[in-house]
Amino acid sequence: MYTTQLLDKVKTPLVNKFYKVHGVSGRANKQDQVWVIYLGTHVVAACRLQNKATFLFLSTVYVAPEHRSKGVAKQLITDLLTHQHMHVYTFAFKNIADLYRSIGFNQVLTYTPEIHVLFDMYKHRNIVALEYP
């Protein structure tokens, strides 16, 4: 059974090891909220919420290949969103944007200066800016 958990700050290195094993370039730090999905005692999915001044930024969502197409990413994102009280933004690859839309994200229509700066850094990656709620 898959279980979602907000990771204690001292366990952040476990997620970075998970990312490294799978060749994921993002790295979690202790300022982030780091959320994981466990199968038993093994991390099979992870993501991080970066705290910005006026919003949260969801990044580095990754599910181990053998656990994809099982609803794990949707469970991870849905569960973490139920614990948030700030606006959440993310940049999703266009080929998986529908997953985020099915959770309740909408395309960003008006860019705040902070979001615009972030988006400019990543726009070359074929992404779409999304916001929740």
Give an overview of the whole structure:
The protein is of the alpha+beta class and 133 residues long. The chain has one domain (2-132): Aminopeptidase, CATH 3.40.630.30. The chain is 28% helix and 33% strand. It contains 4 helices and 7 strands, in the order E-H-E-E-E-H-E-H-E-H-E. It has a 7-stranded mixed β-sheet with strand order 1-2-3-4-5-7-6, with helices on both faces. A hairpin with a 2-residue loop joins strand 2 (33-39) and strand 3 (42-51). It starts with a strand and ends with a strand.
Beta strand %: 25-35%
Kindly report the CATH topology.
Answer: Aminopeptidase
Helix/strand-derived class?
Answer: alpha+beta
CATH architecture: 3-Layer(aba) Sandwich
Mean pLDDT: 96
Please estimate the helix content: 25-40%
Give the ordered list of helices and strands: EHEEEHEHEHE
Rg, nearest Å: 14 Å
Distance between the termini: 28 Å
Number of helices: 4
Sheet bearing the most strands, described?
7 strands, mixed
Residue runs with pLDDT of under 50 for 5 or more positions: none
Instruction: Work out the count of structural domains.
Output: 1
**Widest sheet, order of strands:** 1-2-3-4-5-7-6
**Quick one: CATH class?**
Alpha Beta
CATH homologous superfamily classification = Gcn5-related N-acetyltransferase (GNAT)
Total beta-strand segments: 7
